[in-house]
Amino acid sequence: MSTKIKLTLENNAYEIIIGKLKKLEFNAKILLVTTQNVEKLFLEHIKSLIQSHYILSTCILPDGEEHKNMQTIERILDCAFQAKLNRKSIMIALGGGVITDMVGFASGIYQRGIDFISIPTTLLAMVDASVGGKCGINNQYGKNLIGLFHQPKTVYVDSTFLRTLPKREFHAGIAEIIKIFTCFDFALLQNFNIRNIDLYIKRSIEIKAFIVEQDEKEQNGKRMLLNYGHTFGHAIELETNFKEYLHGEAVSMGIVMANRLSVKLGLLKESIANMIESLLQYCELPTHYKIKNIESFYNTFFLDKKSLDSTLHFVLLESRELLQAVVHNDIPQDIVLEVLHEFG
């Protein structure tokens, strides 16, 4: 049995369908975009499920975050033009968060926007990248600084894809689940058990859909809370040229750094910070990053999408009666630098 979660927005609504992927019928030209690794594992199976009166075209891209750039977007667009896609055509993203983001972006700018469908094959993409319509690419200045909001037509989440997922990538996806639960359902972390992954996937999607419905384009601050750990995490990814760590691994270390800042400010109990760090370690995620250049690392924060003018914004945990995530924009520079020096 499949479960359907409906995400309703002012000008759009779509379903996230959780369950075993079945036949997909289209009356439109299709461009299926995936990577070399996913092609070997799933492409023929997915093609066998797609029924259309038109020829199915494919676009195969190299794997890796380092290819999440404008050159690869141009390659997707070139495939779209060669396939003669029109405004009624559909792109399908088959892969992880990188493919999801890039296909969302490319479909959003092709002929001023065509539909796309997401079939995530990694845990991170299932619980985060495929839901919500934030599509972007990286450049020399930072993570996802070029992009747009372009919601998918449908998302198909089939956890059987995870059977072939490398252990490291699986655990990287767990980091995003821990991020979501820490901010919005902390009770679920008390007895966290990886064997309950289907439950965690469903609950993560429910939470994210609820948040996106309230703040689709990060205008009232609610969706910004989903960036907990990401300001530090994105700086880590940039300093390592997007090659050393998976996104979820950088987020894991970013969570620890953000919590350290919260503790130093007296917002978060150290026992809770320690508990979260221990859980990340239990899930075989890195929790300590050694900053190479503290000055440039700090300056990266000003390119973060949450920052306005010269004001830094951090999503930090506060342990009051209930644990909650709050956006702070009033943190003294010397306190931030103290925390960075602890990781230097």
Mind sketching the topology for me?
Layout: E1 3-9, E2 12-18, E3 24-26, E4 30-35, H1 36-49, E5 50-52, E6 56-61, H2 70-82, E7 90-95, H3 97-109, E8 115-120, H4 123-129, E9 134-139, E10 142-149, E11 154-157, H5 167-184, H6 197-214, H7 230-239, H8 247-264, H9 270-282, H10 294-300, E12 314-319, E13 323-328, H11 333-342
Parallel strand pairs: 2-11, 3-5, 4-6, 4-7, 7-8, 8-11
Antiparallel strand pairs: 1-2, 9-10, 12-13
Give the count of helical stretches.
Answer: 11
Helix coverage percent of residues? 40-55%
Structural class: alpha/beta
Biggest sheet, spatial arrangement of strands: 1-2-11-8-7-4-6
Form type: globular
State the total count of DSSP E strands: 13
Measure the end-to-end span.
Answer: 50 Å
Q: Secondary-structure element sequence? A: EEEEHEEHEHEHEEEHHHHHHEEH
What's the alpha carbon Rg, rounded to whole Å? 20 Å
How would you sum up the major sheet? 7 strands, mixed
- Measured by DSSP, the beta-strand proportion falls in 15-25%
Average pLDDT, to the nearest integer? 95
What features would you describe in this structure?
The chain is of the alpha/beta class. 41% of the residues lie in helices and 22% in strands. It contains eleven helices and 13 strands. The strands form four sheets. It has a seven-stranded mixed β-sheet with strand order 1-2-11-8-7-4-6, with helices on both faces. Helix 8 (247-264) packs across helix 11. The model has no long low-confidence stretch (mean pLDDT 95).
